[in-house]
Design goal:
By secondary structure, this protein is of the alpha+beta class. It is 31% helix and 24% strand. Strands 1, 2, 5, 6, 7, 8, 9 and 10 form an 8-stranded mixed beta sheet that branches. A hairpin with a 5-residue loop joins β3 and β4. The longest helix is centred in the C-terminal third of the chain and has 37 residues, at 277-313. It is elongated and about 140 Å long. The chain crosses the membrane at residues 36-56, 280-302. It is a multi-pass membrane protein. Keywords: Endoplasmic reticulum, ER-Golgi transport, Golgi apparatus, Membrane, Transmembrane, Transmembrane helix, Transport. InterPro entries: Erv (IPR045888), Erv_C (IPR012936), Erv_N (IPR039542).
Length: 338
């Protein structure tokens, strides 16, 4: 009994708390301007929701920095360099800071032709163009990170036909030494296809047989985690110097090609991030609700201004109407008694 009696009162209290009162359709008046604004609002909602879906599908790279605590692993060096000299005149060694030879094993010497074929020249020009764009637009590196393993190969294309005799190079020098060289690839750590390193495609041409080329490299350990690959690799920055060795002019040193590298104490973790689904839904609701509220306020403000102008200048619905004359016929009723 008590429950049945209190139920209508509770329901009535809940109805009073309704923040979304319903207006009867008989009280709602539709207009052409309102329909036009609604059509524009729905179109804007659809377009922004469509573009927001592409933003949801896109990813970005997140960079995190921490101290490198790995002291036991060994650094792998990948190098492919072509020198304009015969193999018997070329030697390569790896030295430490005390200039003590660490090893000279693992280095392979292959006789090649220094002059590039037309196809290889096209590849080389394209690689230099990409390198220039990377120096100007650093955000392109993120594109390379996200497109690894599916991009075009970054190695020098093979020469068409290897029957020709390997040449010393296109420089005919009197001396046997010519340190003109082309760096096809230099990287540290695990090789990742599709990544273009700062020294890839570097070419130095000299007519002086007694010249020193120096590359000062700072190697930064990098962990790369994307949807396509997860690898431990290394980024590096490089500073280039070159000078002619002339003892008589006070320019001392040893002619050759020197790469001096040092490892950074910081480690960079590069991970690919994606917008979560709940954030996409929140942004979508914000777009729909924001456009709906904004167009409603704009429509109301424009209507208010329109009413003021029409009322001031007696236009539209505020225009005075002409009143037609009304004629009344008076009649008199006489009642006679008997």
């Amino acid at each position: 009994q008590v429950y049945l009696t209190g139920h209508p009162q509770t329901l009535s209290l809940v109805k009073e708390l309704d923040a979304f009162p319903k207006v009867p359709e008989s009280y709602v008046e539709t207009t052409a301007t309102g329909g036009t604004v609604s059509l524009i609002a729905f179109t804007a909602m659809a377009l922004l929701a469509f573009f927001e879906f592409f933003v949801y599908r896109d990813t970005w790279m997140k960079y995190e920095y921490e101290v490198d605590k790995d002291f036991s692993s060994k650094l792998r060096i990948n190098i492919d360099i072509t020198v304009a000299m015969k193999c018997q005149h070329v030697g390569a060694d790896i030295l430490d800071l005390a200039e003590t030879m660490i090893t000279s094993n693992g280095i392979q010497y292959e006789p090649v032709i220094f002059e590039l074929t037309p196809q290889q020249k096209l590849w080389h020009r394209t690689l230099l163009l990409i390198q220039n764009r990377l120096r100007e637009e650093h955000s392109l590196q993120e594109v390379l990170y996200k497109s690894v393993l599916k991009g075009a190969p970054t190695a020098l294309p093979p020469r068409e036909g290897t029957d020709s005799e390997p040449l010393t190079g296109f420089h005919q020098c009197i001396a046997a030494y010519n340190f003109s060289h082309r760096i096809d690839h230099v990287s540290f750590g695990e090789e990742i296809p599709g990544i273009i390193n700062p020294l890839d495609g570097t070419e130095k041409i000299t007519s002086n047989h007694n010249e020193m080329f120096q590359y000062f490299i700072t190697v930064v350990p990098t962990k790369l985690h994307t949807s396509k690959v997860s690898a431990d690799t290394h980024q590096f920055s490089v500073t280039e110097r070159e000078r002619v060795i002339n003892h008589a002019a006070g320019s001392h040193g040893v002619s050759g090609i020197f790469m001096k590298y040092d490892t950074s104490s910081l480690m960079v973790t590069v991970s690919e991030q994606h917008m979560p689904l709940w954030q996409f839904l929140v942004r979508l609701c914000g777009i729909i609700g924001g456009i709906f509220s904004t167009t409603g306020m704009i429509h109301g403000f424009v209507g208010f201004c329109f009413d003021i102008v029409c009322c001031r200048f007696k236009l539209g619905p505020y225009k005075p109407r002409e009143v037609s004359p009304v004629f009344f016929i008076a009649t008199k009723t006489v009642t006679k008694g008997w």
